Every structure is written in C-alpha cells, then in structure tokens.
Amino acid sequence: MQRILVIGATSAIAVATAREYARGGARLFLVARDAIRLETLAADLRVRGATVDGHVLDANDLAGHAAMLDAAWAALGQVDLALVAHGTLPDQAACSASVERSMQEFATNGSSVIALCTALAQRLQAPATLAVISSVAGDRGRASNYLYGSAKAAVSAYASGLRQALNGSGVNVLTIKPGFVDTPMTAAFKKGALWASPEQVARGIVRAVARRRSVAYLPGFWWAIMRVITHLPEFVFRRIRL
Fold first, then answer.
1. Can you list the domains of the chain with their CATH numbers?
2. Does residue 238 surpass a pLDDT of 80?
3. CA atoms within 13 A on the CB side of 53
4. pLDDT value of position 110
5. Is 148 tagged catalytic?
6. Alpha-carbon dihedral of residues 177, 118, 14, 242, nearest 10 degrees?
7. How far apart are CA 233 and CA 167, in angstroms?
8. Omega before residue 127 within 30° of 0, cis
9. DSSP letters for 176-234
10. Using an 8 Å Cβ cutoff, are 185 and 140 in contact?
11. 171 in helix, strand or coil?
C-alpha cells in the first residue's frame, strides 16, 4: 500500500492524481484549505478504494505547516510520495497594478511551496519521492504571466538544487512542468490542440513517479516547445507576444 501526502488536494490535477492512486488502494492524507471540498473529495476517493485522512490548511499559513506534517506522519506512519500541488493562476494586469497583490500571489505560488519542500526534505526517507508541481511558465518569463512564471521559476530552481542536495539519499525530487491544462482556473481561456486534461497530466505524474524521473514536462511535447522558447535570442523574444 502506497502512503501518499497530497498538499493542495482539491486542485484539478491533484484530484485526478489522487484518483489514479486510489484505484490501487493507496492510503492518502489530503491537505486543502476548503474543508467542505476536502471532505467531498475524501468520500469520492474512499469509494474508489483509498483509505483517506484529511487536514485543513491554507498553504500560506507557514506557521501551520509543522502541525500538518506531524498529523500526516501520525496518520501514514511514513510517506512514500509527497505531492505539492497547490497554487493559483493570478491575473497579470492586477498584479502589475499592485505590489501587495504581486507579493501575495508570489507567496502562494512560490514561497509557500519552497517552505513546504524544505520541511518535507527534512522528514522524507528513502525511497520516497517529493513531487512538486511547477509549470512550463517558469522556464522563461512572458508578458502574459510573468508574475506567475517568476514564482514557478523559483520553485523549479529550488527543486533542482534540492534534488542535487539529496542525491545519494534515496529520496527523489520530481519537478512536474505541465503546459496548458483545462481546469477551473483556466475556464475562461480559449482551448486548442496544446491543451491537456487533468487526467492526462495525472497519468504522466504517476508514470514519472514510478520511473523516478527528475523533471517531467506534461504532456511530453512541451519539452520540445520550451527548448525553442528558451533558446530564442532576447532581442527576438522581447518583440513577440506569448
């Protein structure tokens, strides 16, 4: 039985991933800020075959992280997989107009993730995996979402360094970089061929965890797309709109 901690459990990708593991009878400890949605999800996963415990926490409450992790370890005994999946998709124009809004969104998508990973790295033991959802948006800042992208860039860089620091410990750090995903957060966006479902991304996460990958672009074609974007010369890149 796999013992899995999911932080940001009610996000669309996390829900789909938890359902994948529930089919195998996993023991899940779910963390989310909305108690009602958390209990609804827990009931859904129990029907699918999982054993589930839950904990209500806003990830920006850094002081509450230790108590949540204590509860997770008490419930699970040990953790085979910790998935950090919380986040928001901020409005760039609103962030550009407000220092306070910018710092709040950076804290949610960047600082709180780093804080959780720091604490998790101190607790996880081999052969556990720490899987962190970043984004292709973190590979290069773009005018349309550079506040979000900068937070994800921080997460990706942190995860890269942590992965190197833990090399040889038996704990794997997996950076998950989804592209466009059709979720409630992106409901207003026009969809196209590059868009994936949460279920597609979840299956990719499960495969990447099982293979002990370091970085997973999901779907995989985003690796090639981002190689092109990141290698564009700056004098060209600044003249296009992405």
1. 3-237 (3.40.50.720)
2. yes
3. 16
4. 98
5. yes
6. -30
7. 33
8. yes
9. EEE-SB-SGGGTTSPP-TT-B-HHHHHHHHHHHHHTT-SEEEESTTHHHHHHHHHHS-H
10. no
11. coil
What are the pLDDT digits (tens) for 22-67? 999 999 999 999 999 999 999 999 999 999 999 999 999 999 999 9
Contact 223, 204 (CB under 8 A): no
Strands (E), 1-134: 3-7, 27-32, 51-56, 81-84, 129-133
Residue 11 carries which DSSP code? S
Q: Taking the complete model, does pTM exceed 0.90, yes or no?
A: yes
Q: pLDDT digits over 169-195, tens only?
A: 999 999 999 999 998 888 778 888 899
Exactly one of 21, 146, 148, 158 is catalytic; which is it? 148
Residue appearing with tokens 């796999």: 2
**Cβ contact 151:142 at 8 Å:** no
Tell me what percent of the chain is helix, strand and coil, each rounded to the nearest 5: 50, 15, 35
Partnered with residue 51 across adjacent β-strands are 27
Amino acid type, 97: A
Whose tokens are 């760039």? That residue is 92
Average pLDDT, the chain: 97
SS3 123: helix
Contacts of 65 (CB under 8 A, 6+ apart): 57, 59, 115, 116, 119
